[in-house]
Amino acid sequence: MEDTGLVGGGRPAPHRRKRYRAFLSTNFHITDRESGLAALEHLVASRQARDLCWGVLIAGMLFVCRWLKREELNDWYGRFMTPIQDQFHSWTELNLRFQEEEAAAGMDDESVQVLRKAVERERNGLYQVRFL
Asked: What's the whole-model pTM score?
């Protein structure tokens, strides 16, 4: 998929670009390349699961919005994924921490309980998640 322009399973179509720009502006106050890069710098510096996950998503959106080049996108993905892999032992653990941090910010607690049970099953060896 390298050099194809594909991100997130689709091409950066004009309707997707418009939707992403509206989302980024409304939720993260990102209106151009400079504000997008500032947001990514802030998110990667925090090292919280929530911010690292949002950073990966936002970097992809910035690419679709044509505010990042492919090489820059790959660099940002590495900057977010390295601390994710250093701090978390599985995708379930990452998701649980993400949900806990979202809950602390006011999210519903039900999904946190579901993930907590999944992590307990994993710790008890009932299933394993390969985390690379």
From this structure: 0.73
